[in-house]
Amino acid sequence: MLKRRSDFQRVYRTGRSWANRYFVLYAFESDRLEGKVGFAAGKKLGCAVTRNRVKRLLRETYRHHQDLVRPGLALLLVGRKAMVNVKCDVVEKAFLSLGRKAGVFRENEPAADKKMDKRQGK
């Protein structure tokens, strides 16, 4: 996980970003930060309980799909206000679509949809 402020700042400044209504995804190619991921939720989202829920949703979504992320990347996921009132499956769909758009997944990525369907019992 990204822990240090300097690591977060490096990903913010030099990484590329993609966004949808639920969160912003920053991706940074780095050998030193390879495989690390950070989660953030600003104070504009609400109280500490709300911000922690947003970060939990982001962590859980990443945990389910971390094996799809290609090596050599550091990711930063920043929650947005629309994410406060949604369930985990909505965030997962948003992560998969944004990850495809950003090109952060490996080539065998279409298995992600099957994996998600299997977990939901479809």
Summarize the SSE layout with pairings.
Blueprint: H1 5-14, E1 16-19, E2 23-29, E3 37-40, H2 48-65, E4 73-79, H3 88-102, H4 111-119
Parallel strand pairs: 3-4
Antiparallel strand pairs: 1-2, 2-4
Helix pairs in contact: 2-3
Question: Can you tag this structure with a few keywords?
Answer:
18% strand; globular; 43% helix; 4-stranded mixed β-sheet; alpha+beta; Ribosomal Protein S5, domain 2
Distance between the termini: 32 Å
Record the strand order, biggest sheet.
Answer: 1-2-4-3
Mean pLDDT: 85
What value does the Rg take, in angstroms? 14 Å
**Proportion of residues in β-strands:** 15-25%
CATH class: Alpha Beta
The helix/strand series, from N terminus to C terminus, equals HEEEHEHH
Helix-residue proportion: 40-55%
The multimeric state of the shown protein is: single chain
